[in-house]
Design brief:
Length: 471
């Protein structure tokens, strides 16, 4: 099957990756193929067989490699990570002329596997499929899911589990950690080659390392504001899990909040709350500071001036983030115009939501559909006092607040308890809940037959308190 692969990363120097074909699996069976994404990529559906999605057969033109990177994991630098359970098959130019990586995740051991088995089990594969596609439908930049297969092989974790492979699509898999691996080895030439490659792919207007830093900073600030506007917690914002493109990448112990609280943490491995909901912008800046220090050796002039200049560029983060956050949250309460007191109005709502443990998604959707969230903001008098201020502000709003809010406040999200129930069913061989979820979450802003089911917050015994890493 001829596909228009054009593998620019594989043309970079050998030190950037290891040539590594996927390790074949016993008996691949298709769980799902993302037809609209396949079409967007110009890949005929007939080409996306179980064998192709599992890596048993390679599409003509693919040149599988495992990419090298490093990264700060929970603040500690690990000098070498890399694709330990994934291979990049290659890049295709999609129907819109955009370059897209196709990667298999769970495709077997690579030179960067360390102690790992290179495999994935069904749970994280289905979670990433559902959540990444939901994020896309919610309008958040993200990697995509092209397809998923079971492997017919067991994977040993805390128990024996069914193996699976995810075919993932990204505008690239270049991470902050990809810069760190070369910079930490003092290899300025490789760092520069990587930067030039990343600029060409993602930020063609950037001429200098500082401009590149600014572009990545702005993209991350926009991204994290988008996460927060849908109540998303990434869970493992390590520098190896931050894509230079500004897409959400590496869905591990990620989660959407049900009840709103700014300090919400889900990940079992995040004991200090480093990546708590409200801490995500700070961690974004922290990661970008690591990118900045990797880029310093590429800057002309003396270090001291360069550090000051890089810090200046990083200081744009709060500004871009703040503007994006305000724009999104203003829309969430029906505002298209800007007034001085809008920030306080939004904060007033969020504070009341936190006190009442209001459901994040359902509160905002109730504003859109009923202009009434009194069943969520239950604390005495809290709703009435906010509603009064809100109504006064809306009276000065020219547009159609309902339409604004319906487009900004989704009816549904992939709730953790539904995700866990879906995975439990799949492990027993029942994929109906998976298909039901992907179908409903393809149009999260519209009311449909399954909206009530997926909008329902977890009962106390359904509540998911902890999520576990995606291995
Ligand atoms: P993560 O933060 O989960 O994206 O992964 C951190 C690092 O661990 C990456 O270098 C992964 O490739 C590697 N890794 C995770 N799971 C496995 C596995 N099952 N086998 C080999 N490497 C793995
Ligand atoms: Mg990762």
């Amino acid at each position: 099957m001829q596909t228009n692969f054009d593998n620019s990363y594989a043309r970079l120097p050998d030190a950037f990756y290891a040539k590594q074909p996927p390790v074949p699996v016993a008996k691949p069976e298709v769980i799902a193929v993302n037809e609209s994404l396949a079409q967007e990529l110009g890949l005929p559906l007939a080409s996306l067989t179980a064998d192709v999605l599992a890596g048993n057969t390679l599409l003509d033109g693919s040149e599988p490699i495992a990419q090298l990177y490093a990264g700060h994991q929970f603040g500690n630098f690990v000098p070498q990570l890399g694709d330990g359970r994934a291979v990049l098959l290659g890049e295709v130019i999609d129907q819109n002329g955009n370059r897209r990586d196709i990667q298999l995740k769970g495709s077997g051991r690579t030179p960067f596997s360390r102690g790992g088995d290179g495999r994935a089990w069904l749970g994280p594969v289905l979670r990433e499929y559902v959540v990444s596609e939901a994020m896309h439908a919610l309008g958040v930049p993200t990697t995509r899911a092209l397809g998923a297969v079971t492997t017919g092989e067991d994977v040993i974790r805390e128990r024996v589990l069914p193996g699976a492979v995810l075919a993932r699509v990204a505008s690239s898999h270049i991470r902050v950690g990809t810069f760190q691996v070369f910079a930490s080895r003092g290899n300025a030439e490789a760092t520069r080659t990587l930067m030039e490659h990343a600029i060409e792919r993602h930020y063609p207007d950037a001429d200098t390392p500082l401009d590149f830093l600014s572009a990545v900073t702005a993209a991350q600030a926009e991204l994290i504001a988008a996460w927060m506007s849908v109540g998303f917690i990434h869970g493992v914002m390590n520098t190896d899990n931050m894509a230079i493109s500004g897409e959400t990448i590496d869905y591990g112990p990620c989660a959407f909040m049900d009840a709103y609280h700014p300090s919400t943490v889900f990940s079992s491995i995040d004991q200090m709350g480093r990546y708590a909901f409200q801490n995500q912008p700070n961690m974004g800046i922290w990661n970008l500071a690591q990118l900045a220090s990797s880029l310093l050796p590429l800057m002309d002039g003396n270090d001291e001036d360069n550090i000051t200049a890089a810090e200046d560029r990083l200081h744009a983060f709060p500004e871009v983030f703040g503007a994006a956050w305000s724009r999104r949250f203003r829309a969430k309460i029906g505002l298209t115009t800007e007034e001085e007191g809008d920030g306080a109005l939004i904060q007033g709502l969020l504070q009341r939501m936190a006190t009442s443990q209001a459901d994040f998604t359902n509160t905002f959707r109730a504003l859109a559909t009923r202009r009434d969230a009194s069943n969520e903001i239950t604390e005495d008098g809290a709703w009435d006092s906010w509603q009064e201020q809100w109504a006064a502000r809306l009276s000065r709003e020219p547009g159609d607040p309902e339409a604004t809010m319906r487009a900004a406040n989704s009816a549904i999200i992939p709730r953790n308890h539904r995700v866990e129930q879906m995975i439990a069913a799949a492990v027993e061989g029942d994929f109906a809940p998976f298909h039901r979820m992907t179908a409903a979450l393809a149009t999260p802003y519209e009311d449909g037959p399954d909206t009530a089911y997926f909008a329902t917050a977890p009962l106390p015994d359904e509540r998911v308190a902890r999520t576990f890493c995606g291995t």
